[in-house]
Amino acid sequence: MHEHTHHHHDHDQxxxxxxxxxxxxxxEKIHSYYQVLxxxxxxxxxxxxxxxxxxxxxxIEFRDSITPAAGARIVARAWxxxxxKKRLLANGTEAIKEFGLDMGATILDVVENTPKVxxxxxxxxxxxxxxxVLGLPPSWYKSREYRxxxxxxxxxxxxxxxxxxxxxxxxxxxxxSADLRYLVLPMRPAGTEKxxxxxxxALVSRDCMIGVSLPRPI
Amino acid sequence: xxxxxxxxxxxxxxxxxxxxxxRTPVYVRGxxxxxxxxxGAFPNPEVLALGRDGLPKKALYEIRxxxxxxxxxxxxxxxxxxxxxxxxxxxxxx
Lengths: 218, 94
Hints:
With 218 residues, chain A is α/β, with parallel strands linked by helices. Chain A contains twelve helices and four strands.
């Protein structure tokens, strides 16, 4: 209490901070049309008691808890356990439940890269993404540029990600347009025979599972 | 419509531009591809988008298009393809 009595100009003596405080930045963010629309919808849902603020917060918290590390664990398991890989390719939605993951209302389809086929994912219509295994999509995935170019000049897009594939390999782009979500199962890199599942998972990045990149070589 | 499609069937996507929430990308309308998988029936998103039940359900297929069929000046490999999931009422067997 008494700290506040001499609360004049010398803040840094009142607190433990070495540096004086910068004044808090004003929240002057200008919202776009769609952000305003989203906020208005949220407020209406709360006002009409359709959702509670805590339910919205919990959902955001759950969404944020899923990261590409979950997808990497699935890939590493598929590389080391042939029976799991078979289950994963046959029915991805069911197989990922072994990891406590859930696709919600969508279906997970895992597409396997081979020496002849390289898979790559896009959603030209909106931003469909295998959120149940990779979390939220990166902003470039949702950009108009990626969405338009991934189906028009996929090899040019791949090259910009540092991925160069010979013309003998079929680049197969999956445009997620309906009820299925796609996850790319990359090829296990050579020289990783002695690595365990955890070490293998560390080689698998989010971009490998979107299909714009390849696992880090050894 | 009505007649089920099977993997291997050659199909053409309806060249139509109705208003509403259409999940058939414009760049494949009027184009030919091949059925690669049949996924079963799903609620129709065009009806769901109106806040209705999505019934009757529509059969959903994976259609594979050759890039060179989609874009005459396609610069990649002639092997390159695009797979898109399309509902039955947008497809006609050729």
